[in-house]
Amino acid sequence: MKSPVTVYLAAKLRHAPTMRAWYHELLDSPEFDVVSTWHNSDTLEADERDSNLCREGWEANIEQVEDAKYMIAFATKDDNIQGTLIEIGAAISRGAEIYLVGDYPWGSWIHMNNVFDAPTIHAALCEIAMEHVPLPARESLLNDPT
Question: The pTM is what?
Fold first, then answer.
């Protein structure tokens, strides 16, 4: 059996509950290993006000991005994303494949060879699965849990 595919989930802090739900949905999946952990913190807002916690959090985030073969980045047109763009830049620099979800105006870098559009997080996971997950295991992934 293949090793699980490593995925980093990137989004603005306000989308942490959505990312946390996907993290827990995939937690027991032998096909995916979600390496991002920022979305699991109960103190995200407080962490942003503490420079030491903020620095430690960003160092952990970038290390986790470096561990991921794939990134799924989610943003809406109303988001003022900054951290997500830092994470995307780190993923681009190491050649990870990036799936963009949401109606955010991403910018001209979306035309890079390792950046792809996906209508939903589930669709992005299905695209990744089609490339790297053995056929029998794919069937359980095709049912959208949301």
Answer: 0.87
